[in-house]
Each structure stands twice: as C-alpha cells, then as structure tokens.
Amino acid sequence: MLHYVSDIHERGVPEITEWILKECDLNRDVEINEMCQMYLPNIQLKYAGQVFRMYIKSLHDRSVCRVENSLTIGSPLVQVLDGIILPTRAIKELTEEVRQLKQMFYSRL
C-alpha cells in the first residue's frame, strides 16, 4: 500500500493496526465433475446485509462449485483476523457475553 500511493515516509497511510475492514468475501471451492457442471444452478441470496452465492467456476483444467459469502464488517482488521486465526478466543468472548446477559436477566427476576 505504501508503494502504491508513493508514501515511502509512511505519513499518509496509517499503520495496519488502524485499518478498518469494510467488506470481504469468504469462499470455498468444491471440485465437481462434468455432469454437475451442467446441472448445478447459480444461486444468489441477499439477506440482512449479507450476500450468499453459489456458482460454477472454470479453473483451467478443472471445474469447481464456489460457495461464497460476502460480508459487510466495519471492524478493525486486526480484530477480524484474530477471529479467523484464533476462533476459540472469539467463541470464549461470545460465551462470556452470553453468561453476563444471562446473569443480568436472572438478577431482574
């Protein structure tokens, strides 16, 4: 990025820890045979700020069925990467949040 915007002194481009990830596509390719290539449909669903797609893609000598989820995130890049690389940390944080909400709910009864 620094070379792309010619910012060799790193004055205009903030540190990567300050970057905000706005959107991303998560996908998985599943190799398919010729028969599937002819009959599998292309699908696109839009719901609650997310887009889910399934389509056939030709990759030189093979074909794949690509399943793709487009997300609008708006979170710091470091936080998103931590959730991908260390999913157990994100699960622990979510579990703790649920536990706190549960305690608040039962304390009001």
Fraction of residues in β-strands: 35-45%
Rg, please?
A: 21 Å
Largest beta sheet, briefly?
A: 4 strands, antiparallel
Helix content: 25-40%
Oligomer: single chain
- pLDDT averaged residue by residue: 80
Order of helices and strands: EHEEEHH
What is the 3D form?
A: flat
Order of adjacent strands in the largest pleated sheet:
1-4-3-2
Number of helical segments?
3
**Count of strand segments:** 4
Summarize the SSE layout with pairings:
Blueprint: E1 20-32, H1 34-39, E2 43-47, E3 50-59, E4 62-76, H2 77-85, H3 87-107
Antiparallel strand pairs: 1-4, 2-3, 3-4
Helix pairs in contact: 2-3
Note the main attributes of this structure.
single chain, 109 residues, alpha+beta, four-stranded antiparallel beta sheet, 3 helices, flat
Describe the structure.
With 109 residues, the protein is α+β, with helices and mostly antiparallel strands. 33% of the residues lie in helices and 39% in strands. The chain is built from 3 helices and 4 strands, in the order βαβββαα. Strands 1-4-3-2 form a 4-stranded antiparallel sheet. It is flat, with a radius of gyration of 21 Å. The relative contact order is 0.16.
